Amino acid sequence: MQFDDKLVIPLREAQSIVFFTGAGASTESGVPTFRDSKNSFWVDFDVKTYATTSGFSANPARVWQWYAERCQQLQIVAPNPAHRVIAAWQAKAHSVSVVTQNIDGLHQRAGSKKVIELHGNLATYKCFDYGHPAEHQVRSSNELPPHCKFCGSLLRPDIV
Fold first, then answer.
1. What does each C-alpha distance from 114 to 49, 93, 108, 124, 133 come to in angstroms?
2. Looking at domain 1-31+80-118, does it have CATH number 3.40.50.150?
3. From residue 70, how far is each of 17, 78, 98 by CA, in Å?
4. Which of 26, 38, 46, 145 would be 31's cystine partner, CB 3.0–4.6 Å?
5. What pLDDT score does 37 carry?
6. Cβ(74)–Cβ(31) under 8 Å?
7. Can you give the pLDDT at residue 120?
8. Angle, vertex CA 123, rays to CA 29 and CA 85, nearest 5
9. Residue spans per domain, the chain
10. HSE (CB half, 13 Å, CA atoms) of 66?
11. Residues 6+ apart with CB under 8 A from 71
12. Cα 70 from Cα 60, distance rounded (Å)
């Protein structure tokens, strides 16, 4: 992949670099955006039902299943050149930060370290009542959504 020197030279000379990504970084991998009306995750679903605390409280199993299906969709996609280039810069340069709004984990799968995930990660979980992180494997539980092993609260994906 070739890049214009107007981009590469300043990056090579930079003391520190921040890559800030959003949905556009993952669309080439086949990840639908959350807002694009034609291909979005929300095209056939009501945001208030699936993406709010009141929606989760009203029907936790339905919301859990919806996010589980989104998580399965992400398992079949792969990092694209944008993710790999960012990971390569982070591996080579001294001070490179990766900040993303994406919840797909593709930066990490491409090799980026210490990714700051502003909106969380769909593959991790948190306690619904208290918000603390929870380690949990969905496959090991018969209850959906599962309960926090520490406080008994329901678990939910650790995303905003």
1. 32, 14, 8, 15, 17
2. no
3. 31, 15, 23
4. 26
5. 58
6. yes
7. 93
8. 35
9. 1-31+80-118
10. 18
11. 122, 123, 157
12. 15
E strand or H helix that includes residue 157: strand 155-159
Residues in the chain: 160
Spot the catalytic one: 83, 94, 107, 119: 119
Catalytic-residue membership of 107 = no
* CA 97 remoteness from chain centre: 16
Beta strands at 133-134 and 155-159: parallel, antiparallel or unpaired:
unpaired
Read off the tokens for 96: 């490179």
Q: Which residues contact 43 (CB under 8 A, 6 or more apart)?
A: 37
pLDDT mean for each 10 residues of the chain (160 residues): 80 90 92 70 74 90 89 92 95 92 96 96 91 68 80 89
Residue 105 identity: G
Written as six digits, the tokens of 88 are 């390569």
pTM summary value: 0.84
Instruction: Give φ, ψ of 83 to 5 degrees.
Output: -65, -40
CB burial class (10 A; 0-12, 13-18, 19+) of residue 73?
middle
